[in-house]
Structures are given as structure tokens and as C-alpha cells.
Specification:
heterodimer; A: about 425 residues; alpha+beta; 7-stranded mixed β-sheet; 9 strands; about 50% helix; elongated; B: 7-stranded mixed β-sheet
């Protein structure tokens, strides 16, 4: 800031000769020029002034009766209600939250990956207020205007939990990085809870979708159609062009893209909730199994069993997966007989990987619990057979390696010789 | 069974045995030097005193205390410390003392390699443990697991890293290191002397960036440098850090008795003045030592030479010692392999190691008794560094320098006084090399925007920022320049090599298990990894089956042949701009920008043992172009009486001789400065000899030659005169000349220049 500007700002505090003592507080008439201000205003985008700089803010409201993809926005309210009604322990659980507490967040940046010089030029977020969904986007009009950008952003932020797509490893660390550079001029970043839906999506659909990009999940799972969308990777180029030309057109395209990303987060969160709580009627058996396995991994035994038990009927792949998962659960609980039965069922699955695991587990149970060495040897040999004949499995290590299995088999032979009983 | 001989036995044998004694042209004994010590500093924290005492240290060497005092007064220092003189205490004491009184204080240690960083971490941690205090020191490099990185960033009092990591991982992510940069009290730069030439010029810019970030976070660290003996430690430290430095050179460490032998292989061809190959002599000497299980390190100048000697020695002693008891060590081996060798040397499982200058640095390999250099390492300080590898901490040691036929080697070996009395070379850097500077300005702008009045380097910062703005890399808004590009600039800039992309070496001997066994910079790859080249790795021969130049991959397969390959590089040179020109009666000296185009042309197959040429083949690789600085001298007098052919031969010979003397005067690796003759230079149509820097943009070597051209010529003349051959030999003007009069003509050419510069002075 030049000395002159500084003095101007300090004017009310300076003793001045013959001017009237009491001046009306001067209306904030910005001395700065916002290029294409009318055009921006036409798109509901207005400048936010601070000191001698500004950023741009767009605000859009949607009624909750609007639909995005396969869900209405009000379905999200149902989702939050679900979590609060049937308290299950889950990382995505909104238990104890009101719908207003969640904050769907996405950024656009000038480059890929982390690093101080990767500038965030768009902070977009949406949240529910009563019967409305309010979406805001804070735009960096040029490099250097980050103080107004973060100031305006932090003024609006009073939520409890972020909902992002890969925000744990990208968006939020990058916000922290860029915030550090202006930390002396703007408020501190508040602490948030964080639901990162990327990991959830990968859990559920990694077999179905190769590249777990949000745009792909939208299309394949959420029924979202994008029309004339600007691909995300072009965003930096378009932004650089915008910085030079100041023309809003390109930027408007990015805003649209970012807006859909954020709206899809709401749909995705709703869909994931319905999946996890088991109320999606179109849920596939494979999705159902992944949910069950997820609960098992979290140590939510009761929930896991509830889901998996529904799957064991039948002879498709998920039924064997479910049996194996349940069997492992029984093993953990030392219900050896239940575990043995289920493992034995899995041996018929015709899937090498599942069968191999089941055979090894059976060999262990027969050796250590049942003390039936003949059966143990049988399953151990089955395992060796799979290991030596397969070409499909990735390189086997540890107890699945050929050497280890061979050792086990030799040990069993020795035991059998000793206790032929 | 024969009794094993001790080093003493070998020493007496060298003195009397005709096989050796004839060839020893100088036997220089360096007497042992007693320690000079002083009492521990009075203000030293009791736990540090206790820790020192637990290691049996009751007193400090004079240089350690001087360093401590200067640093505690807030001065930046550079300490000149030979091998094994306890240099680590020079920085560990003040750093730990400071952290003990202010637990928020932070220090950043920088070592040129990961291996050295690992060594230092163990050493400082031992010290901290003995003191029983809560100080965290961590290494931060490519091997640091992701799960402890955050801890290092936030809680590491001492962060130990290397310049490459600082450049590409720490500085570009400085916002994650706030607690380090806000509280940074010390920056330790060990092995300062390694930061010269291109690498040093890069690192100087990395330090500019580091200081810029420190200023941003409000810290102003003290710099502590340690260096091997070079002529200008103070100057180098000040250039590298742009800080006022204090020189600490009162070394008080003791040293053992050391025998330094100059060994000149016997002449096998009198008229051509050809000596027996240094490689074969080294085989004989090292073989003797290794058979007696005397731990020996052999240095060789090139990677190929290392592998050849390794092959010889492994063969020679395979019955006495296991094949794994002698190993090679050089850049291009993978890190795990190198760690294993270092460990083997320390534990004594490995008796011999054959190395390039990679082991010159302070990698801890314990005490070796003998050091043999295959040829003069190129610089005085490098030779002393290598010699320091023998007898680091104890008793008597033997160092043998075996000369090759090269003019430089012969010059050194016939002038022992030059070596033993002359101060070592000057280390030069040029941080303002435009190419290097602009690369780091990009990184700096990525890290923090530039302000209008900011200085970065000594050339017009604003002009460069404007240039980058036009290139659409930066964006100017008001009085600041912002990074405005989607790339991560540090990833495209390597500090180590002139050409930024390395060639990966892929071993496909076992089709089921194809693996990467090493890498090499692009320029070297042109002559070492071309199709059909024999590439040696740990003594194993590989033939290059295909060099994929586009993909930067060389596919090799193990072979067993009795030859190695040697490639020719054809060079074309064109003057782009003349910056300085001095015209005299008979000659003119110029300096300016040139374009050099190099192309690998043919390779020769050379038989082991006899070193005869047994075949050749073409190399099909695209030309590489280099824009750099050059100094040149052109002769005005047509020297018409010589005729075209003799003039050409004379110039080739002169260039050869100059090329071996020039590196002496600019302390550079011999391959950093090249000499090229032209009978009729493109720009002035006169017979001309060029000296150019082998790095884009130049690093100041040819500029130095330009200012000292007369000295270089006078020394070269003396060297040629002293040579006993009749009409040119490898030890003076080389063997590329066939003409009988080449030697005479070369002298005539040199004279015509020298006379002209003398008359110039008289006027």
C-alpha cells in the first residue's frame, strides 16, 4: 500500500485543520476497478472488497426439491436422519450432526500435486440452510488477491465437518499451504471433521471402475449427466488465460464444472449412506459384501454379520466372499467348528484366491484344533496344487509362498508319522 | 605356506626390489604431527562435557575450539579440516549447546550425498545419547518413510539432508516446515569443496532460495561450513552463501606417518616415449598388497578404468581371497549396493576397493592402510583427499600415485615440488550463470512471489523477471511477480549433471527377471552406452544391445569377452558473439558465446592386456548441441612456411598439450574444460584454438583461461620442451599427430603467441 493510500485510510484519525470534525463514515467506494463488473453481476457474481483488493463471490440457491443425478437434495436430509436414528459406528456417520453442519467442499488449482506454488484460484462449497441448498464460490481474480479470498472464505465458514472427494490428501493440505502464506492477514483456519468420500467410493466400486475419478463415479453410479463440461485438467490453462484477458467466459465454465463437482458430493454422500445403511433397493450383492467387509474391518461385528449373513445363501461370488469373511470372523472369536464349516464351503467356490485362503485356514484348524493331520495334509496339498498350477495369482508371499506351504506339509507329515492315530 | 608380509615389509621391499625401486621417482615422507589441544570451553553445558568425556575427549583440538567460539558469537565460519580431524565437533558442539539453552532452536545439516548424511546421523545421535538429552535429529531424504516425515518437519531439532532434497522437497514445500524455518539458527554445509563448478553454482542458488525463505519466516541462520584443503575456502564459502565468513584453519589434529610415493611406469618404447600402462602397474602393486591382506583402496579416474582394474584384481587373488573381498565402488551403482560395500570395508570383510572419486568424500569406510591412485586425479586437493583415505586414524600409511602417459600426469610426476609445495587449486563457482540462475528463479518464484526491489543474484533481477513474465511463467501484479504455471519447476532441474535426463541401464540377461542396474548422464552415455559398447558393472561385462535414445534406456546383456570399447567424439564449434577481443601483432585473444555440437562417431574395440585395437564400428546417435562460453586464441601470421597439413598437425598437438595443462589452472575436472583446434575458424578465418566450458552457459572456466592465457601457454611450452620424446608422444602433444615435425610445429605455434604477447606488454 502506498503511503498516500495509507494516509487516506487513516484520515478519520488524523487531526486536520479546518475540515468539519465529524464526517459521515465514507461509503466504501472502492477505488479499484473490477474488469467486466456488469458481466459478472449478470451471473450473480459480485466483488468482495478488502483494503485495495478484491475477490469475486458467486452465490446460488437451490430448493431442496431439486434433483441431481438419482437423488433429490432432500434425500440428503433423510440420510442424516438415518445416521441419527440407528447409531452404527462408521467413519461416514453423521450421527450427532444436523444437516446444516456438513460442508461440501471442492477447489480448483493452477497445478497438480502439492507444493507452495500451486495456487488455489477457486474455493467452492455448499451447505443446507432450512429448505435451501446454498452454494458459494470464491474466485481469485488475480494472483496476489489471496487475502480477500481467504478472508471472505473464512468469514462464511462455520461448519463442523468437511465433505470432500480426495480432500484429505489434496484440497485441504493445499488450503493449509496457501493459508500459511497469508496467515498474518486473515483468521486462523478452523479445525474440521472430514468425510473423504474418495476412499469410500474406492471400497465399493474398485472392481467396477478402473479410474476412481469423481466424474466417472457420477456417470457410472450416480446418474449425473454433464453437458458441455470443461474437463478438470484444462482448468489451469483456462485460468491463466482469464488472468491475462480478464474475460469471464472461460472462468464461468470452470465455475459450472466446480458446481457440479460439489453437487455430486451431496448425491454421493446420500448414496453411500443408503448403501451403508442397507436401504438402497438396487444395491448389488457385491456392493453389499463390500459394506459387510467394511464393517468387519472396523470391528463392527454385529453390523458385519447382519450384512454378510444375508449374502451366504446362493452360490455366486459374493456368497463365497461373505462366507470367507464370516469364517474369518468366527476364527477370530474361536468358534472353530463354525469357522471350519464355512471354510469348507468356500473350498467349492472355484475361485483360486478364495479357495487357497480357505484351504490354508482349514489346514491350520485341522492341525492345531482338530488334530486331524490327515485332513490337514489334504488341504495343505490342495493349497500347494493351486500355488503350483496357477498363473493368475500375483506373486505369493509369506505363508502362501510355495516354500512355506511345503514346510507346513513336511511338518504335518512328521506329525502324522508320530501320531498316526 | 608363505608368511604374510606386513606393511613394513612391503615398504622395505619397495626400497630394494629392482622391480619397483627404479620406478619410484619420489619418496616423500610426511612426518607424524602431534595434536594441539586446548581445554573445553568454559560455558559448555555439563551434559555435553559429560558426553565428550564418555568418548574419552577431555580437550578440544585448537580448530574445534576456535570454531566453537566464533560460532557462539554469532559468526558464520568456514573450517578447513583434513580427513579425520574431528570436524564434526566444529558444528555439533555449538549446535547442541544452542539447542540445550533454547529447545525451539533448529539446525539444518547439508551433506553432498545420502551416505554421508546417514553417517552423520549415527554420529550425532550417539553423542546425544551419551549426553542423555532430548534432542531429535533425523535424516530427511528420499529414503525417509512417509509416516515419519511429518515428525521430522515439526519436531526435528537437527534435520540432516542433501542439496537435492532441499531443492526439490523441502524448499518447494516450505509451508509444511514452518517450525524449522521460523527457528532456524544454523545451516551446516559439510564438504564445502565439493560445491564447485556446475554443481556448486546450482547449490549457491539453492542457498539463495533457502535464505529467501528464512527471511520470509523471520530467521537469519549462522552458516557453518567445513572444507577439505583448497586454495580459496573463504572465498568459496562466501560466494556460496553470500555471507561474511570467518576462516578457521588452525588445524590441531594429529596425523600419522605417511609415505607418499610417485611411481612412473617404465618406458617400453623409447622412440615413442611410451610407458607401460598405469593400469597394469597398479595391478602389480595392488596385487602384492592384497595377497598379503593389507587393506587397500585403488582410485581410478573413470568408471571404465575402475571396472577393468577390478576385473584384474579379482582374477589375481581369487584363490587367496574370496571374489567378494574386492569390490568396485562408483556412481551408477545402486545405493543399497554401495551401503553394503561401505559396511564390508569397515568390518574388514572387504580387503580391497576400487573406486572413482566417489569415495573421496567423507563416507566412513574405516581405516585403510594403503591408497593407490591410477593416474593423477586431476587436482591437487583431490589427490590429497584420496591420499587421506589411507591411515585416517592410526600409524603408518602408504600412498602411491602411479602416473599414466598423459601430459598432465607426466608433468606432475616430473615436478614433485609442484605437487608438494604449490597451494591446492581454487574452487570456482558461477552462481550467476544465466541458465542456472533463471532455473532457480523459477523455483524461487514458485516458493514465494518476487517483490520489485528484491535481489536474487547479482545480475538484473527485474529484467529476468520480465523475461519470465513474457514466457508466461510469471505474472506481474502491482509490484510483485507470481508463479503462474501448472508445473513443479524443481522437478525439471537436476543439480548434479549438465544434461538433465539420465539414461537408465536395463539388464535383460535373464528374460524373466529384467532389472535396472544403474544410470548414467546423457553426455557420458553417448560414448559409454552406444550400441555394442561393452559396459562394465561390478567387474561383470555387459554388451549394450540397444540404446533407446528417445526413451533414455540402454538394454544390456551379460557377456564374456576379452576387450573393452572406447568411443570417439567429434566436435564442431562456432562463435556466436564476441564479448572481449584483444588484438596483438601476431595473435588475437577472444572470449565470448559459442555453440558446440558434439557427435559420437566411431568406437574401437581394445583388447585387454595388450591394449591393441582389434576392431571398430560406427555409432549412430543424434548430435548434441551446447551453448556455452569459450576463450580462444587466433594466430594472425599465416605461418605459411608450414603448409596446411603441418599447421593442422601442429594445432592438434598444441591443443592436446594445452588441454592437459589448462585444468591445472582452473581447478576443474579435466572433462569440464575442452580444447578444440581449428585451422580456419568460421568467425575470423584464422588458425584458432578454443577452450570451452562443458556446461550450457559456462561456469567461468574459460573466462579464467582468457585472463591467464600467457601462463597456460608458457607452462605448456615448458612441458613439451621437457618431454624426452623426439616428435611427440602421449605425454606431450598426444598421438593423434602423424607428422614428424608436429612437436616442432606445436612449439612454433606456441612461440608465435608468446612473442606476440610479450611485445604487446613492451608496447
Amino acid at each position: 500500500m502506498s503511503l498516500k493510500n495509507k494516509l487516506n485510510r487513516l484520515k478519520p484519525h488524523l487531526a486536520s485543520g479546518n475540515q468539519p470534525k465529524k464526517i459521515e463514515k465514507p461509503p466504501i467506494v472502492p477505488t479499484i476497478d473490477v474488469p467486466f463488473r456488469e458481466k459478472w453481476a449478470g451471473e450473480n457474481i459480485f466483488p468482495y472488497y478488502m483494503d485495495q483488493d478484491y475477490c469475486l463471490i458467486r452465490e446460488v440457491k437451490y430448493p431442496i426439491s431439486e434433483k441431481h443425478g438419482i437423488y433429490y437434495f432432500h434425500d440428503f436430509l433423510t440420510a442424516v436422519e438415518l445416521w441419527n436414528k440407528q447409531p452404527v459406528n462408521h467413519p461416514l456417520s453423521a450421527q450427532g450432526h444436523q444437516p446444516e453442519d456438513l460442508f461440501f467442499f471442492d477447489t480448483e488449482t493452477t497445478g497438480l500435486g502439492g507444493g507452495t506454488g500451486n495456487t488455489i484460484f477457486l474455493l467452492g462449497y455448499a451447505s443446507f440452510v432450512g429448505e435451501e441448498l446454498i452454494l458459494r464460490q470464491h474466485i481469485l481474480p488475480h494472483p496476489g488477491a489471496e487475502v480477500p479470498l481467504y478472508q471472505s472464505f473464512l468469514e462464511k465458514v462455520n461448519y463442523k465437518t468437511l465433505v470432500t472427494y480426495n480432500g484429505k490428501s489434496f484440497d485441504w493440505p493445499q488450503v493449509k499451504t496457501r493459508h500459511t502464506l497469508v496467515r498474518e492477514h486473515v483468521p486462523k483456519l478452523p479445525a474440521f471433521g472430514h468425510f473423504d468420500l474418495f476412499h469410500a467410493a474406492r471400497r465399493l466400486w474398485k472392481h467396477k471402475i478402473e479410474k476412481m475419478k469423481l466424474t466417472v463415479v457420477e456417470k457410472e453410479i450416480l446418474g449425473v449427466e454433464r453437458v458441455d463440461d470443461i474437463p478438470g485438467f484444462l482448468a489451469p490453462m483456462i485460468y491463466f488465460d482469464f488472468v491475462e484477458s480478464k474475460q469471464p467466459e472461460g472462468m464461468l465454465g470452470i465455475l459450472k464444472h466446480n458446481e457440479i463437482d460439489i453437487l455430486s458430493l451431496i448425491t454421493l454422500y446420500t448414496h453411500l449412506t443408503f448403501q451403508i445403511c442397507g436401504i438402497d433397493e438396487k444395491q448389488t450383492r457385491s456392493e453389499s459384501f463390500e459394506i459387510g467387509r467394511w464393517f468387519a474391518g472396523l470391528g463392527e461385528k454385529r453390523e458385519a454379520e447382519k450384512v454378510l449373513k444375508k449374502l451366504v445363501e446362493g452360490s455366486d461370488f459374493p456368497s463365497y466372499q461373505a462366507k470367507l469373511a464370516l469364517a474369518l470372523q468366527h476364527k477370530k472369536d474361536q468358534n472353530w467348528e463354525m469357522a471350519r464349516k464355512l471354510f469348507a464351503d468356500v473350498v467349492d467356490s472355484k475361485d483360486e484366491k478364495l479357495t487357497l485362503e480357505a484351504c490354508l485356514e482349514l489346514a491350520k484348524i485341522y492341525e492345531h484344533k482338530v488334530k486331524d493331520y490327515k485332513s490337514a495334509i489334504f488341504y495343505c496339498h490342495e493349497a500347494i496344487l493351486i500355488v503350483t498350477q496357477t498363473s493368475k495369482l500375483p506373486k505369493l508371499t509369506g505363508e502362501y509362498s510355495y516354500e512355506q506351504l511345503k514346510k507346513r506339509s513336511e511338518r504335518l507329515e512328521r506329525k502324522l508319522a508320530k501320531f498316526p492315530g | 605356506m608363505l608368511l604374510k608380509k606386513s606393511l613394513q615389509d612391503i615398504l622395505s621391499e619397495l626400497k630394494i626390489n629392482d622391480d619397483f625401486k627404479e620406478n619410484i621417482v619420489k619418496w616423500h615422507t610426511l612426518d607424524e604431527k602431534p595434536a594441539q589441544t586446548v581445554s573445553l570451553p568454559q560455558d559448555l553445558h555439563p551434559v555435553l562435557i559429560q558426553s565428550l568425556q564418555s568418548k574419552g575427549i577431555e580437550k578440544l583440538y585448537t580448530h574445534q575450539k576456535a570454531a566453537y567460539e566464533k560460532i557462539m558469537e554469532g559468526n558464520s565460519i568456514v573450517a578447513v579440516t583434513p580427513t579425520a580431524s574431528g570436524k564434526t565437533l566444529c558444528y555439533n558442539l555449538p549446535v547442541l549447546q544452542t539447542i540445550l539453552s533454547n529447545p525451539n532452536a533448529r539446525a539444518l545439516y547439508m551433506f553432498p550425498t545420502k551416505a554421508l548424511a546417514q553417517d552423520q546421523k549415527s554420529e550425532i545421535n550417539e553423542f546425544i545419547q551419551a549426553a542423555g538429552v532430548d534432542i531429535n535429529s533425523y535424516t530427511y531424504d528420499g529414503d525417509t518413510p512417509a509416516n515419519i516425515r511429518q515428525r521430522v518437519r515439526q519436531a526435528g531439532h537437527v534435520v540432516i539432508t542433501n542439496p537435492d532434497m532441499l531443492h526439490s522437497a523441502i524448499l518447494p514445500h516450505h509451508t509444511k516446515w514452518v517450525s524449522l524455518f521460523e527457528n532456524l539458527k544454523f545451516v551446516v554445509i559439510d564438504e564445502l569443496h565439493t560445491y564447485r563448478g556446475v554443481f556448486g553454482s546450482h547449490v549457491a542458488n539453492v542457498i539463495r532460495r533457502l535464505k529467501r525463505i528464512c527471511r520470509y519466516y523471520g530467521s537469519n541462520p549462522v552458516f557453518i561450513c567445513t572444507s577439505a584443503t583448497i586454495a580459496n575456502p573463504l572465498d568459496l564459502a562466501e560466494k556460496l552463501t553470500e555471507e561474511i565468513m570467518h576462516l578457521i584453519d588452525n588445524n590441531g589434529a594429529p596425523s600419522g606417518r605417511k609415505h607418499f610415493l610417485f611411481y612412473n611406469p617404465p618406458i617400453v618404447n623409447k622412440p615413442l616415449n611410451i610407458r607401460r600402462s598405469a593400469t597394469l602397474e597398479v595391478r602389480k602393486l595392488a596385487g602384492q598388497l592384497l595377497k598379503n591382506k593389507i587393506q587397500t583402496i585403488v582410485f581410478a579416474r573413470s568408471r571404465v578404468r575402475v571396472e577393468i582394474i577390478l576385473t584384474y584384481l579379482q582374477e589375481l587373488v581369487k584363490n587367496q581371497l574370496g571374489p567378494k573381498s574386492i569390490m568396485g565402488y562408483r556412481g551408477g551403482y545402486l545405493p543399497t549396493e554401495r551401503r553394503r560395500i561401505e559396511k564390508g570395508l569397515r568390518s574388514g570383510e572387504i580387503y580391497g576397493v576400487v573406486s572413482t572419486n566417489a569415495l573421496e568424500l567423507g563416507v566412513d569406510i574405516g581405516q585403510l592402510q594403503v591408497c593407490i591412485m591410477t593416474g593423477y586425479p586431476g587436482t591437487i586437493s583431490s589427490a590429497w583427499q584420496q591420499a587421506g583415505r589411507a591411515g585416517r586414524r592410526h600409524g603408518e600409511a602408504l600412498v602411491i600415485m602411479v602416473a599414466s602417459s598423459s601430459p598432465l600426469d607426466q608433468y606432475i610426476i616430473q615436478n614433485p615440488d609442484y605437487f608438494f609445495n604449490k597451494s591446492p587449486e581454487t574452487a570456482r563457482i558461477n552462481p550467476d550463470n544465466l541458465i542456472i540462475l533463471i532455473d532457480h528463479m523459477k523455483c524461487a518464484a514458485y516458493e514465494l512471489p518476487f517483490k520489485a526491489d528484491e535481489q536474487f543474484g547479482s545480475v538484473g533481477t527485474e529484467e529476468l523477471l520480465e523475461y519470465l513474465t513474457e514466457e508466461r511463467v510469471l505474472y506481474r501484479n502491482g509490484d510483485k511477480w507470481y508463479w503462474m504455471n501448472d508445473s513443479f519447476p524443481a522437478h525439471n532441474i537436476s543439480l548434479r549433471s549438465a544434461s538433465q535426463e539420465n539414461v537408465i541401464i536395463v539388464d535383460q540377461s535373464d528374460v524373466a527377471n529384467v532389472k535396472v542396474i544403474g544410470e548414467m548422464d546423457r553426455f557420458s552415455a553417448m560414448t559409454l552406452l552406444h550400441d555394442e559398447a561393452i559396459y562394465l558393472h561390478q567387474g561383470t561385462q555387459f554388451q549394450v544391445e540397444k540404446l533407446d535414445w528417445e526413451e533414455k534406456k540402454a538394454f544390456v546383456r551379460e557377456v564374456d569377452v576379452d576387450y573393452f570399447t572406447d568411443a570417439n567424439l567429434a566436435v564442431q564449434l562456432k562463435v556466436l558473439e564476441v564479448d572481449k577481443l584483444k588484438t596483438m601483432d601476431d595473435a588475437e585473444i577472444g572470449y565470448g558465446d559459442v555453440s558446440v555440437r558434439a557427435m559420437a562417431t566411431i568406437f574401437k574395440k581394445i583388447k585387454f592386456e595388450t591394449h591393441e585395437n582389434i576392431g571398430s564400428g560406427p555409432i549412430h546417435l543424434p548430435e548434441e548441441e551446447l551453448h556455452t562460453n569459450a576463450a580462444w586464441i587466433s594466430i594472425n601470421k599465416p605461418l605459411a612456411e608450414m603448409g596446411h597439413d603441418r599447421l593442422e598437425q601442429g594445432l592438434v598437438g598444441t591443443a592436446h598439450a594445452l588441454g592437459s595443462i589448462a585444468p591445472l589452472f582452473v581447478m576443474s575436472d579435466p572433462q569440464d574444460i575442452h580444447v578444440v583446434p581449428q585451422v580456419k575458424a568460421d568467425h575470423n578465418e584464422k588458425p584458432t584454438i578454443f577452450f570451452y566450458d562443458r556446461y550450457p552457459g559456462g561456469i567461468g572456466l574459460s573466462e579464467k583461461i582468457h585472463s591467464g592465457m600467457e601462463v597456460v601457454f608458457a607452462e605448456t611450452k615448458e612441458m613439451i620442451n621437457r618431454c624426452q620424446c623426439e616428435s611427440g608422444c602421449p605425454s606431450c602433444i598426444g598421438t593423434e599427430t602423424v607428422s614428424e615435425s608436429a612437436k616442432k610445429d606445436a612449439l612454433k605455434i606456441i612461440d608465435s603467441f608468446l612473442q606476440s604477447s610479450i611485445s604487446d606488454k613492451e608496447v
